[in-house]
Specification:
With about 180 residues, the chain is an alpha/beta fold. Helices cover about 50% and strands about 15% of the residues. It has a six-stranded parallel sheet. Strand 4, helix 7 and strand 5 form a beta-alpha-beta unit.
Length: about 180
């Protein structure tokens, strides 16, 4: 609950500072999906910070997908039906099969760098947006753009930083040019 609230608080603060083109991703764990309070916690965090639900992206990992738990799938479907964005994080690093992508109401897939080219093609075929992880060089950025990858993250843009440092990065012209 604290993480959801803190993510929404930070995002609302950034929006108040004029940083409107940002979506916040929050990783959740299997136990959270079995908690009847989860949807209420998400709703309350969004409402407390006056955020529309499409700005909060819930990320699930392969360990959740491998459970094939109908309770989790039902919770994800309810969140998706309310406009929440759902992302599959680190796809390709474990044992989840491609059929997992069709069982879950995903809006985005975050592909591990070892899977990039074939997965971007497949994700687009399934109607999913793509975020490539592990980008470290300008050549990788250009390659991914040539494949139609919509977004990327990695040390090329920045190492992981606290929220206050992230604000400074967003205000730098360098990041706007690099991300364009």
């Amino acid at each position: 609950r604290w993480i959801l609230n803190e993510a929404c608080r930070t995002l609302a603060d950034w929006r108040a500072r004029g940083l409107h083109d940002i979506r916040m991703g929050v990783n959740l764990f299997p136990a959270q999906f079995r908690d009847e309070q989860l949807e209420r916690d998400i709703t309350e965090a969004l409402r407390a910070h006056s955020l529309p639900c499409e700005l909060l992206e819930i990320e699930i990992t392969e360990n959740i997908a491998l459970l094939h738990d109908e309770t989790i799938i039902a919770a994800l479907r309810r969140l998706s039906s309310r406009g929440m964005k759902l992302a599959f994080d680190d796809f390709g690093t474990g044992y989840a099969s491609l059929s997992c992508l069709t069982r879950y109401p995903l809006s985005r897939i975050k592909i591990d760098r070892s899977f990039v080219r074939p997965m971007i093609t497949m994700a687009h075929y399934l109607g999913l947006e793509v975020i490539a992880e592990g980008i470290e060089t300008v050549e990788q950025v250009e390659f991914l753009r040539s494949l139609g990858c919509e977004e990327g993250q990695g040390y090329f843009y920045s190492e992981p930083v606290p929220g206050s440092d992230f604000e400074q990065l967003l205000s730098q012209e360098y990041l706007r040019v690099v991300a364009a």
